[in-house]
């Protein structure tokens, strides 16, 4: 989980659930680079640590970019999961009898997704305004 140290592009995938988890666990911004923090929390062999230390600055930058990309993918997957769960619980109230949505469920799901995205965009705009102050 990343809390408060996402790149500007990854803020677009921030959700209230992520922020809540960060506050609940009182996670703070790491002082070191992302890959160093991951290495600290993972079980890494001495050989792997030596290889990481021997990497060129360009290789370290590429590794950091890869890790940031993977973090962003995980955030997107988390938001999609949260959106799916929230809208499914709200809109699919009856017994599932076919492979598709019935007439009342389909507009409910579309409206739920639209409102979720609207709320997310409002939060993003607010965070960007706060960041520019």
Instruction: Tell me, briefly, the overall form.
Output: elongated
Mean pLDDT: 75
CATH architecture of one domain: Orthogonal Bundle
Strand content: under 5%
Give a quick account of the main beta sheet: strands, pairing sense, barrel closure: none
Nearest-angstrom radius of gyration? 20 Å
Through-space gap between termini:
26 Å
CATH topology of one domain: the name is Helix Hairpins
Helix content: 55-70%
Order of helices and strands: HHHHH
Question: Uncertain segments of ≥5 residues (pLDDT<50)?
Answer: 1-35
SSE-based structural type: mainly alpha
Count of extended strands: 0
Family: Belongs to the small Tim family.
Protein name: Mitochondrial import inner membrane translocase subunit
GO cellular component, one term: mitochondrial inner membrane
GO biological process, one term: protein transport
What is the structure about, briefly put?
This protein has a domain at 56-92 and 103-133: Helix Hairpins (Orthogonal Bundle). Helices cover 67% and strands 0% of the residues. It contains 5 helices and no strands.
List keywords for this structure.
Helix Hairpins, 0% strand, Mitochondrial import inner membrane translocase subunit, Tim10-like, 133 residues, mitochondrion inner membrane, disordered N terminus, mainly alpha, 67% helix, transport, disulfide bond
